[in-house]
Amino acid sequence: MRVRFAPSPTGALHIGGARTALFNWLLARHAEGELVLRIEDTDRERSTRENVQQILDALAWLELDWDEGPVFQSEHSERHRAALEALLEAGHAYRSNATAEDVKAYKQRHGAERGFRGEPEASGAVRLRVPDSGATVVHDVIRGDTQFEHVHLDDPVIARADGSVLYNFAVAIDDLDAGITHVVRGEEHLSNTPKQLLVLEAAVAIGFGSGASLPLYAHLPLLHGPDGRKLSKRHGAASVAELREAGFLPESVRNYLALLGWGSGDDTTVLSTHELVRRFTLEQVSRNPARFDEVKLRWLNGVYLRDMPSDELARRVGEFLERSGHADARQDPRFARAVAISQEKIHTLADFWPLAGSLVDGLVLDRRACERWLTEDGRSALAEVRAVLAEAPSFDEVAVKVALEAVVRKRDAKPREVYQPLRVAISGSTVSPGIFEAVALLGREETLRRIDSALAQA
User: Which of 105, 135, 325, 422 is most solvent-facing, going by the fewest CB within 10 Å?
Assistant: First the structure.
C-alpha cells in the first residue's frame, strides 16, 4: 500500500487537512505501507517557502512522519510535459482555442446536459478527449461506486496554451508515477476524481507509467462546526498551529481528529496512537459530515493531562511557557510542584499560567476581586488566617488545612468566606489551585508577606 498526503502550501495546515494527513498516516501504519508527502506547489503566487515550513512544522508537532518526500510537484514539470505530449501524439488530447462562450454556445445547440466536445486546432489550450459513450466509475471505499456518464462530461482542459499543466492533470500523473494505491482525501475533491481517472486511463492506455494500476479512492466526510455549519474560524481554532498555541497536546489532537468521521467499533473515546493504528480501517469511516467541537477537544485534552506523570506534565508546561513568553517560570524551585497541584484543574497547557502563574511569578491584585472579597469581613477573616498560619507548627498541606479549617469553625463561616479572601491575597484573583496546596507551596514567609500586602492595600 502506498498513500499520499498532498497539501497545497497556500496557508497554514487547517484542521481538515490535518485529519486527512492523520487518516493517511493511520492507514499506512496499519497496513505497514508507505506514506508519501507531496507538496502541491504549482500556485506560484501563494505557495511560499514559509507556508511549506508551516505545514512541515504542523506535521512534526502532530508526530506524523512520512516515508518519502517531501516531494514538490513543481519539480515534475518536465515529466508533466512529456505525458502531455504523449497524450497529444496518441490522440487522447487535442489543442483548442474554445472559449467559455464557445462552450456555452455548444451546449445551447446540443443541450445543457451534453458535454462539450471541441475540434482539434493547431494551437491553444490542451483538452483531454472524453469518450462519447460509457461512463467513468469512481470506486470509493467510503461512498461506494459513483458513476459519471461520459456524455455529460466536458472535454476537460488539462494544460494552458503555454504548456503549463493544470491541477487535475498534474495530480493524476504524479499519483501514477508514485505508484499510489489509495487516494484518501476530502469529499470536496470528489468532482475532480472522474477527470483524474480519465487522465490516468489515457496515460495507462499508451503505456505511460507502465505497470501502474489505478488507485482506489476514499473521500472523507466534510467537517462542520458544532452548529452544523461548515467549519471555519468562527468555531474557534482553524489550524494546527492555533491548536498548538492554545495549549493542546498532539496526542489528544490525534485522538480527537481520528474520531471525526471514523468509528473505533465501540464507544471508546480515549485511544492511544498505538491503538488507533491497530484499529484503523477505511471501511469504518462514515459518509456523514463530522462535527469538530473545541469544547469536546478541551475535555479530551484534560483527560490526557490528568493521566500524564507530573514530571512529564511539568516538562510540557515549561516548554509551552517558553514559547509564550514566560521562560523564567521554569527556573523557580516551586514550578514543578505548582504544575502538580494544578493538574486536576487545567484542560490545556495554556490554562496553567492564568491559574497558577502568580505562585511562581508574583502577583498583580485584581481590583474587582479585592472589592468583592477584601471587604471589612474579608479583611477580618484574612487577619485571623494570618495569625493561625504564623503560629502553625508546620507548613505542609495537612497543617495548612487544619489551621484554615479552624478559622472557618471559629467564625462559624462558609469555607469560601475565609478561603476566597486568602486566595485573592496570595494569587491576586479568585482562581488558583487548591487553597491548601497553594499556601503550602508558597511557604510561610511568602504567604504572610502577601497577606500583609493585601491587608495594607485593601
Answer: 325
